[in-house]
Input
Amino acid sequence: MYWSINLVILVFVIVCALAAIYVKDLLATAVLFGAYSFMMCLLWAIMGAVDVAFTEASVGAGVSTVFFVAAVFRTSRRTKD
Amino acid sequence: MKLLSLIVVCLTGGLLLYGTADLPDWGDPNTPASLHLSKYYIENAIRDTEVPNLVTAVLADYRSIDTMLETAVVFCAGLACFMLLRDFTPKKDHYYRHVPSGVILHVKNPDRQIIAGNEFEDMDKEWLPPDTIIKTVCRMLIPFIQIYALYVVAHGDFSPGGGFQGGVILGSSFILLAISYNLKYLLKRVSEKFLGILSAAGVLVYMGIGLAAMVLGGNFLDYEKYAPIFGEHHIRALGMLGVEIGVGMSVTAVMVIIYINIVSEGKHDEGL
Output
């Protein structure tokens, strides 16, 4: 049971990471990065590291996404490359 | 250039993957960390510190100097953001909205400070009427988020959480206020000076608890020495609560400082 949940989440982690690199819209990248952090948080929770999962959920998925969105709001939304 | 960077990335990734082959398996009982270190903490932490959450016992008691300097790093991050982004040049264009009639006044290059009366609202250049649904929902949610954040700080020694997580949640509740209303609404409630003092006070609370233990005749951050003042019962848990509150104060203030400086380009007037 555990390994199948692990596999699904790991696939999601890799998909989010690759999508965050290839998407041209930086706002979408910020949101994808938040999703990536949330998937990592689930992985930590499955491994039993609840404190790390909590930190990942609050810092990685929560506040750093807001910082990225704020930075995108003040710069440009499209990438050149 | 793109090909070169791709090669470098692939090489680094390959090296890292090659390096992971030597790492011990996850949860392997025969690694040095599991043989000596974890065993000591698991066997002695409850007896030494009377704190059920082992992670907090390690972070805030066995390795509390480490956590103190981590708090100092967070403070330095806020300070660096302030130093790099803060812009004190006064704004040239001011926009005021007459609230009863909705008329907007545009004031260019005022040669003296304008004091707007009660009927006028200092507004952003790109002003939109605040959405009632978002405002109402956030106004109802924020108190619960803040209570939860304080719960996480206070129960760091019994359940997952602690000063860092609780501070981030408390800070993001302020950020939610700025997003749902506007930046000026937040700055009216928590001033920049207050945030700066709070971020430094958190680190000082942590260091003060450590230094006071030295004054009472112990080592730096030796919470046992507070026993004559607060009683023997759960004295180490109490000391950990003290330092967690310091961490929480610092982290809360730094999160809000970073957000305000990024979103308003250091001008502290307009933003999301």
Notes: The CA atoms of residues 23 and 29 of chain A lie 6 Å apart. Helices of chain A lie at 2-22, 26-47, 50-74.
